């Protein structure tokens, strides 16, 4: 084994490129080296009261200091990373009998959690920014304090019968000033600093029946401040809107199932969409948007579970799980498969990447 491979192995597949100056740089991902397990969390999610509990989603905080996990028992669990980074011997840890450590915070919602998201400028060094939003069945949107677990405020939407209606998807705009929420054939926009029942409502179904119908299950903003918003629907469509006035720019067709996840590339030129019981993630060129650029395979055709994917911080690779428990890594420049490894024995629903850390749950 050469010196370069030895260094990469010690860093869990990350080859840190050094230069003459001391300016910080991203590590170069080495997917020909299998990652190793550094932490393990299992028993705290499986209790005698709820032995069949399972994880539904995970999202890293924007500053990379912690991650938030949503589980079937309507609970959100917050885990901070150890200051020392955990395992440092380069060999990882076997699956232990006990969890690596317990959650720092538990937030229990009254009903099933549909979606959750971090405030985009969250920093653990500024407690005022340490908040996340949740959308829950039969409940308004909640804004939670991630340091104390207290409910900061609520954002309430009402239907024609003046009853509270729940959002199916939720997300902050890039400026962090508004909360966008997806409902049935409509988007509601709340001012972050004005909690309550004040909101702007925009129908996604035009009078001529064009547009997007059905449950709006996922949304994502372009990271380049271009003002574009992508919204996925269970009607198997993805709509592209202007953020400022929710004008519908165009609708993308091609997903075999209801769209459950949308994500822009780091440069905002491409959009990736995935659907329920659909084995392909579709890549769309936002400058053309007529047909797909390529398709990325994942084993999801026989599961009703929502399976997420993510793009690593450098923006060159996409990782996705599947019902076979495998993680697949793809080169986004070519659409070619790069590598894969077994991360779980059952459905791997989510894979979120941040900083130098790639995490999966078994």
Automatic annotation (TrEMBL):
<dbReference type="InterPro" id="IPR051150">
    <property type="entry name" value="SWT21/TCAB1_mRNA_Telomere"/>
</dbReference>
<dbReference type="InterPro" id="IPR015943">
    <property type="entry name" value="WD40/YVTN_repeat-like_dom_sf"/>
</dbReference>
<dbReference type="InterPro" id="IPR036322">
    <property type="entry name" value="WD40_repeat_dom_sf"/>
</dbReference>
<dbReference type="InterPro" id="IPR001680">
    <property type="entry name" value="WD40_rpt"/>
</dbReference>
<dbReference type="Pfam" id="PF00400">
    <property type="entry name" value="WD40"/>
</dbReference>
<feature type="region of interest" description="Disordered">
    <location>
        <begin position="1"/>
        <end position="27"/>
    </location>
</feature>
<protein>
    <submittedName>
        <fullName>Telomerase Cajal body protein 1 isoform X2</fullName>
    </submittedName>
</protein>
